[in-house]
């Protein structure tokens, strides 16, 4: 039997898109922070890495074109562009702050960039914000599971994604400390939320389509 033929339509920029298709790509954003110990200064108590990685540490270059990490304004050149794997920035500093991560996709995706906030943590919960109890060998690792969701993706981008054979990402200094994710519980919550939204949308459509008395 012949395979199913995916229905297409023309997007707003003239691109061909796949009707009714959804692509979900899991990613992880995170930071790994080490206390510098005796090398610490008033302005550099920790060295840290912020990154975007694949769930299984696979190379994301076939999906992601560029990642911009927006650091605290006190850093030199706080907007850091990374255009190849590993998508990460290494720095030193003394304070915690929110890092805005902007992810750009390849041109054939015809998708706007997305932004994710990640909090840089330098101290473990039991440190109380003090370096007195910190180890120079055990880092503070903070990771968050997220998903790149492409609704009715561009056909060319979908072909790039589907035809890609996952390969390990290039070496990262933070890789030995990446956490193991079992995101099934998170996926269950997300899918349940999607079902509720779909049900609410269907209910609203029925209300609008119902004949007026």
Automatic annotation (TrEMBL):
<keyword id="KW-0804">Transcription</keyword>
<dbReference type="InterPro" id="IPR038704">
    <property type="entry name" value="YEAST_sf"/>
</dbReference>
<dbReference type="GO" id="GO:0006355">
    <property type="term" value="P:regulation of DNA-templated transcription"/>
</dbReference>
<protein>
    <recommendedName>
        <fullName>YEATS domain-containing protein</fullName>
    </recommendedName>
</protein>
<keyword id="KW-0805">Transcription regulation</keyword>
<dbReference type="InterPro" id="IPR005033">
    <property type="entry name" value="YEATS"/>
</dbReference>
<dbReference type="GO" id="GO:0005634">
    <property type="term" value="C:nucleus"/>
</dbReference>
<dbReference type="Pfam" id="PF03366">
    <property type="entry name" value="YEATS"/>
</dbReference>
<feature type="domain" description="YEATS">
    <location>
        <begin position="17"/>
        <end position="164"/>
    </location>
</feature>
<dbReference type="InterPro" id="IPR055129">
    <property type="entry name" value="YEATS_dom"/>
</dbReference>
<keyword id="KW-0539">Nucleus</keyword>
């Amino acid at each position: 039997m012949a395979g199913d033929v995916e229905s297409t339509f023309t997007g707003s920029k003239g691109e061909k898109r796949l009707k009714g298709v959804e692509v979900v790509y899991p990613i992880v954003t995170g930071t790994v922070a080490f206390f510098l110990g005796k090398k610490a200064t008033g302005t550099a108590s920790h060295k840290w890495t912020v990154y975007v990685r694949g769930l299984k540490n696979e190379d994301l270059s076939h999906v992601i074109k560029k990642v911009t990490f927006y650091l605290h304004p006190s850093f030199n050149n706080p907007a850091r562009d990374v255009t190849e794997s590993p998508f990460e920035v290494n720095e030193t500093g003394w304070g915690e702050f929110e890092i805005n991560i902007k992810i750009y996709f390849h041109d054939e995706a015809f998708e706007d960039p997305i932004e994710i906030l990640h909090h840089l943590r330098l101290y473990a919960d039991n440190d109380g914000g003090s370096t007195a109890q910190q180890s120079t060998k055990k880092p503070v690792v903070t990771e968050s599971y997220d998903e790149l969701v492409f609704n009715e993706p561009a056909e060319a981008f979908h072909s790039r994604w589907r035809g890609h054979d996952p390969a390990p990402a290039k070496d990262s200094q933070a890789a030995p400390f990446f956490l193991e994710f079992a995101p099934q519980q998170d996926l269950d919550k997300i899918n349940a939320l999607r079902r509720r939204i779909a049900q609410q949308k269907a209910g609203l459509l029925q209300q609008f389509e119902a004949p007026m008395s």
